[in-house]
Design goal:
This protein is α/β, with parallel strands linked by helices and 437 residues long. The protein has 15 helices and 17 strands. It folds into 3 domains: 160 residues, NAD(P)-binding Rossmann-like Domain (Rossmann fold, 3-Layer(aba) Sandwich); 161 residues, Dihydrodipicolinate Reductase, domain 2, CATH 3.30.360; 84 residues, ACT domain (Alpha-Beta Plaits, 2-Layer Sandwich). The longest helix has 20 residues. The structure holds NADP nicotinamide-adenine-dinucleotide phosphate and L-homoserine (HSE).
């Protein structure tokens, strides 16, 4: 009896903004965990309102007294202490979060679009009002990465964070790599299976990964990085032949988000990358995500799991909710806010350094390779490997891998090479990742 009373006294009311893929996962997990919550976190998290646009759509799943299409009903309800934003998009999500923070409500969001562009502003608001604003689900869905970087790894200077942080493109590249599918066939399969949206641009062109990378880089390097700072290049030009050649050379092709701390500033880029087959990231298949980082104390660490989906993403959101509920009971909300305490310059893509794989068709005659080597040499591009592949009539397919070189020098040489009469076609240019020693 006393126990029931204590529990009744410790109910934390939550509003869900959105009841789609993520919202329904959160709702399900909260119901399933209800009986364990008093032991796990000392109170019960109870959904008191669910905000959607079209109430009729949800009438069969959500009790009518919980459903609303009026934000003011949530905002003005002082019994609601935590708001979970799982609607997506920038507006009205940004305004709703700012208004909720101003009323002292704590926030959990899964919204990478918003956090990658307005995260700094929202975290400043959270600080001003002494609130928690947690967003574990915004990067790599169910894979814990934000809390590990902000807490467990805080004793490190992180020098590199890179990851496979888009499941759709990893699924497509896996099908191309393992089943020899071409890009269009693999994309169609991803759409049929519900991984890829009808408009797959954000995933395929690297924008989704770019947003997640911006969020991770800000936290890893303690400096503001927004989506617009990230260079993005997608996978739509990768062919089955590129993947075959990559295998021959001992690489897998992955869409990597790479954030690096260098002496000249931070590199943040998302692009298809040839990664050595013995690197742990090359083994990440299908729609799985993984983040690999290097800290000066911990050395290499990798996090792996499901980057999307109702329950995996719900798992991250509920973890944040439970953390907030604990903080509220110990009167220590707002203790982990924005991690940016410095302004580190962000390098232009032209100044970043990497190695390159080039596949091209050349006239198969004396002097062709010497002419190419001359252009590379005059731009300080050093060749680490050159192989002549298939030959058709008087045209030879040649594969070249360079040593690390500044993007500008490499691209300057390719501008000249692509106009040379003996160069019939530059078929692919793919950056190659090597671990720095
Ligand atoms: P979703 O399935 O499209 O669901 C969106 C929900 O939000 C719907 O219930 C929708 O209600 C509601 N909503 C949208 N705009 C609204 C508005 N202006 N006012 C009130 N309700 C509104 O989206 P989702 O896949 O769950 O994604 C939600 C967020 O989580 C996004 O920020 C996404 O980037 C992030 N995320 C998703 C995943 C994933 O696996 N899906 C993984 C990680 C992060 P109506 O149906 O009535 O329009
Ligand atoms: N569209 C994303 C992906 C999932 O394919 O990984 C949501 O972040």
């Amino acid at each position: 009896m006393q126990e029931d009373q204590d529990m009744a006294e410790c109910i934390k009311k939550v509003a869900l903004l959105g009841m789609g893929t993520v919202g329904s996962g959160v709702y399900e997990i909260l119901q399933k965990q209800r009986d364990h919550m008093p032991d796990k976190i000392g109170c019960v998290l109870e959904v008191a309102k669910v905000l959607v646009r079209n109430k009729a759509k949800y009438a069969d799943r959500i009790a009518p007294e919980l459903l609303t299409d009026q934000w003011q009903e949530v905002l003005s309800d002082d019994s609601i202490e935590i708001v979970v934003e799982v609607m997506g998009g920038i507006e009205p999500a940004r305004t709703y979060i700012k208004e909720a923070l101003a009323k002292g409500k704590h926030i959990v969001t899964a919204n990478k679009d918003l956090m990658a562009t307005h995260g700094h502003e929202l975290l400043e608001d959270a600080k001003k009002y002494g609130c928690d604003l947690l967003f574990e689900a915004a990067v790599a869905g169910g894979v814990p990465i934000i809390r590990p970087m902000k807490q467990c790894l805080l004793g490190n200077d992180i020098t590199e964070v890179m990851g496979i942080i888009n499941g759709t493109t990893n699924f497509i590249l896996t099908k191309m790599s393992e089943e020899g599918m071409d890009f269009d066939e693999a994309l169609k399969l991803a759409q049929d299976l519900g991984y890829a949206e009808a408009d797959p641009t954000a995933d395929v062109e690297g924008h989704d990964a770019g947003r997640k990378l911006a969020i991770m880089a800000s936290i890893a390097f303690h400096t503001p990085v927004i989506f617009q700072d990230v260079y993005t290049e997608g996978i739509s030009k990768i062919t089955a032949k590129d993947i075959r050649y990559a295998h021959e050379l001992g690489y897998e092709i992955k869409l990597l988000g790479i954030a690096k701390r260098t002496t000249e500033g931070i590199e943040v880029r998302v692009h298809p990358t040839m990664i050595p087959s013995d690197h742990p990231l090359s083994a990440i298949k299908d729609s799985f995500n993984a983040v690999f980082l290097h800290g000066d104390a911990v050395d290499d660490v990798m996090f792996y799991g499901r980057g999307a989906g109702s329950l995996p993403t719900g798992s991250a959101v509920v973890g944040d909710l439970m953390d907030i509920a604990r903080n509220m009971q110990y009167h220590c909300t707002g203790r982990i806010g924005c991690s940016c305490f410095q302004q580190v310059p962000i390098k232009q893509m032209a100044d970043t350094k990497t190695s390159y794989f080039i596949r091209m068709k050349l006239e198969d005659r004396a002097g062709t390779l010497a002419a190419l080597a001359g252009v590379f040499g005059s731009n300080n591009v050093s060749i680490s490997m050159l192989v002549q592949k298939a030959k058709e009539d008087d045209t030879a397919e040649v594969v070249i891998v360079t040593y690390d070189v500044a993007e500008k020098q490499f691209m300057d040489s390719m501008t000249v090479i692509s106009t040379m009469s003996m160069v019939k076609k530059v078929s692919s240019i793919i950056r190659v990742y090597h671990k720095e020693v």
